[in-house]
Design goal:
single chain, 611 residues, globular
Length: 611
């Protein structure tokens, strides 16, 4: 956060600038909150490294990474400081080592995190001034030590344009302008999520779900998308689009009038953190948990909104009055103005043991903003909206303790099957439906009874519950996962300690495996195979993968390799006895193994042309 007096001076200068564009003053690309840019002044010969707008003749050089906008364990505050008239520098000392403090720029990781990051060093040009660099040698100048580690990626999926398009969660270079922020990616994978990769082919940058970037150059993992829209969460679709040979991404299924190449997945429409931004062309603020669009410059973070409903919290809504006055309200009708989105929730009062900060609604002239300051930074206070967390996003609720049941003999008859079968095999990622019937000892149906769907043979766990229909029948859709033994149980009496259970049925899930290969090779050349095993958990020693070719009317294994603990594998094969041009068909097969909880599965068939 920049000190209020310095920020006010910067904003006054910005108000005199031309209409806001998707670039920062000085020519830096407008980036999501926390972006740390380096500028250089030709008149003073000095640098200025800052996430804030600059003044004077400072021109953009490069982006060094992203600072965090909120404190957390393992992070140190980074302060902007100035010594004399032109020496702008970064410091971890809140007193700026005896010189002028400009404000808190953000927070830096003390140790290298697991996420993509880069070290940040403070450097000195004696007699001229300080600067910051990712180079341990300070680009040939004196080093004053490492400040910490900056992130190379963040969660906002931003689309830039500079003749062509670039959609990324990382930093871009000079000349790029922000067009849109498509949503927020997830930090980790898991069931129902897809890894999204950034790729390049010549000057065309594109997004892909293929870790091999469809044979092109990979720029890195961008983040993770939902494979399908989850219930109860605000998401935006992300489509891959093309205009000529230039790829881009959009939330519009029509790709804004261009060619759509497919749905990549779904990004979150908002995040937990509450950011405040300023638009110099309108002189207004925007406080939101959603994306910050072109022309809005990040000012500060007010804390974290909470996501779940509860009696100790109230919903917060983003509203718009006129063309530019964004404001927050606890009224879902936005006090008669336009409702933009649900911004999350705030605590109505500080809960015990949870660090919080108040969030006030303020007014300056004819526009609104929000602040943690009860005096509204010298403007008009309109009221308390609630209390935001300051220690980080709200932790997820503890998982429910699985209930264990015991099956015992009973006169009540319970049957179950998987669509009429005792054993059913489905594709990887597929689901099965358990159907059955509950009947009384006299054969009459049990209507509106509660049936527990159980997994496991000994001491089974409850997977879910379902009610019987008037004819005693029930059905339950089992979510995608690994192999499972399933049966149904019904409690014959309210005081019964045991369940009347059906016979076991088995849901077998085919292993998921991908395969890519060199599409064309010459006789005597080598074809390279690579792919990934999709299902988890993968044994610590890895998993055997058979590579097969279709020959003489059947599939024949010509090589067996092993996928590593991450599921990735590679292999190669050299064609030495092929006399004439021919197309071969290949597939990968994951066999059933005791330590791998999936049935035999194969990849799609790939074709290789030998010339």
């Amino acid at each position: 956060m920049v000190a209020r007096t310095v920020l006010a001076a910067l904003l006054v200068a910005l108000l005199a600038a031309p209409a806001a564009s998707a670039q920062m003053p000085g020519g830096a690309p407008q980036a999501p909150p926390g972006a740390l840019h380096r500028y250089w002044s030709s008149s003073t010969g000095t640098h200025w490294v800052t996430p804030t707008p600059v003044t004077g003749d400072y021109a953009y050089e490069l982006s060094l990474g992203f600072l965090h906008t909120r404190p957390a364990p393992g992070r140190s505050a980074i302060y902007g400081c100035r010594a004399g008239g032109a020496d702008q520098y970064l410091s971890k000392d809140p007193g700026c080592e005896g010189y002028t403090r400009l404000g808190t720029y953000g927070w830096i990781e003390d140790e290298r995190p697991s996420a993509p990051s880069a070290p940040l060093y403070r450097c000195l040009r004696p007699g001229i001034g300080h600067f910051a660099s990712g180079d341990a040698g300070c680009e040939g100048h004196a080093s004053e030590g490492r400040l910490g580690y900056v992130r190379l990626r963040q969660s906002a999926l931003a689309r830039y344009v500079a003749g062509s398009h670039w959609v990324t969660t990382g930093s871009v270079g000079p000349g790029w302008r922000l067009e849109a922020v498509l949503g927020f990616l997830l930090d980790s994978g898991g069931e129902g999520r897809r890894a999204l990769y950034e790729c390049t082919s010549g000057g065309d940058r594109f997004l892909s779900l293929d870790p091999g970037c469809e044979g092109r150059t990979e720029l890195g993992l961008s983040g993770f998308l939902y494979a399908s829209a989850p219930a109860g969460e605000a998401v935006s679709p992300v489509y891959r689009c093309r205009i000529g040979s230039d790829h881009f991404a959009s939330s519009d299924p029509a790709c804004e009038g261009q060619v759509q190449e497919g749905l990549l997945g779904y990004a979150s429409r908002r995040q937990d953190i509450i950011h405040r931004a300023f638009n110099p062309s309108t002189g207004t603020h925007w406080v939101t948990t959603g994306p910050i669009g072109p022309g809005w410059f990040h000012e500060m973070a007010l804390g974290y909104a909470v996501g779940r409903e509860g009696g100790d919290r109230s919903a917060l809504f983003g509203c718009l009055h006129g063309a530019a006055d964004h404001f927050l309200s606890r009224d879902p009708g936005c006090e008669g103005e336009r409702t933009l989105d649900d911004e999350g929730r705030l605590y109505t009062s500080p809960p015990a043991g949870v660090p919080t900060a108040p969030v006030y609604r303020c007014r300056f002239g004819g526009s609104h903003f929000a602040s943690n300051d009860p005096s509204c930074e010298g403007t008009t206070l309109e009221g308390l909206l609630g209390h935001a967390r300051t220690d980080g996003p709200e932790p997820p609720p503890p998982p429910p303790v699985p209930l264990r049941f015991t099956c015992a003999p009973s006169n009540v008859k319970v049957s179950a099957s998987l669509r009429g079968r005792k054993v059913r095999r489905v594709r990887f990622g597929g689901s099965g439906t358990v159907t059955g019937r509950v009947r009384n000892p006299d054969g009459s149906p049990v209507a509106d009874g509660t049936v527990s769907i159980l997994i496991g043979d000994r001491k089974p766990l409850a997977l879910g519950e379902v009610r019987t229909r008037p004819d005693g029948r029930f059905s339950f859709k089992v979510r995608p996962g690994k192999n499972r033994i399933i049966h149904a149980g019904y409690r014959p009496a309210a005081d019964s300690a045991d369940l009347a259970c059906s016979r076991n049925v088995r849901l077998n899930v085919r292993a998921g495996v991908t395969l890519r290969a060199t599409e064309r090779v010459r006789r005597g050349g080598q074809v390279r195979f690579r792919g990934r095993l999709l299902g988890k958990p993968i044994p610590r020693v890895g998993k055997l993968i058979d590579l097969q070719a279709f020959d003489a009317g059947r599939w024949r294994t010509f090589r067996t390799t092993r996928a590593n603990r991450r599921g990735r594998y590679r292999a190669s094969y050299r064609f030495v006895r092929t006399a004439q041009p021919r197309t071969f068909r290949f597939r990968a097969r994951a066999r059933r193994e005791a330590r791998y909880p999936y049935a035999l599965g194969t990849s799609r068939v790939v074709r290789v042309r030998v010339r």
